[in-house]
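Example: 2-C-methyl-D-erythritol 4-phosphate cytidylyltransferase.
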Amino acid sequence: APAVAVVVAAGSGSRLGAAVPKALVELDGVTLVRRAVDALAEAGIDEIVVTIPEGMVDAFAEALRGAPARVATVVGGRIRQDSVRRGLAALGAAADAIVLVHDAARSLVPAETVRGVVAAVRAGADCVIPVMPVVDSVRRVTVEGNEIVDRADLRAVQTPQAARLQTLRDAHALVERDGVEVTDDAAVCEYAGLSVTLVPGHRDALKITEPIDLVLAQAILEQRRQ
Ligand code: CTP
Ligand code: MG
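Written out as structure tokens, the predicted fold is:
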């Protein structure tokens, strides 16, 4: 089965605060969305649907021109899961294709991480997500006060997240039918009763969210050039 992808890039990037949607912000002269698409293509993903903000078709076509994969764009939805659902609907691959859902904002994900996610689905996992240890001490805040949470039990979740195409479409349909709001595709899969398998994430797959993250991303690029 082929591996295909939805790259979600329809957000505005309000926390980044740039003059253009976050996915069109440039890092070293290349847009974040293009970097994300190129990373997936490098890992052998051959069909990619990119979700984009309304009214931005030309700007995204320009950013994605000449990308080393078959790329189509589709307008995203109100929240991320709406965008994912629209992206999944626009994919032309077979029902048993492996589909990755990836944040354009995780522009520097290494191809090795992408391959690890695909391999785990090929090996039989329902839903696969890359995760990282949590470095901070963590406390849970309640009405009574606050309490320690053992960070050894916690993982921070990244993308790309993967499943079989029909499996993920069905899971999203269920979440949509029930009006459930989630923050990632693993939550969609779990809601549909699927098991979630963890594989190692990577520091470079950080989600570019605030201006300082662009500084870190720039440093990662410089380090890669050495
Ligand atoms: N996204 C999307 N459709 C939405 C909301 C988000 O496709 N309705 C995408 C974003 O483009 C991004 C990814 O989901 O690549 C993760 O979202 P986030 O990092 O929160 O990006 P934004 O929502 O654009 O940023 P902010 O929350 O700061 O406005
Ligand atoms: Mg957001």
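The pocket of cytidine-5'-triphosphate (ligand 1) is lined by residues 8-15, 22-23, 51, 76-80, 83, 103-105, 207, 209 (CB under 6 Å).
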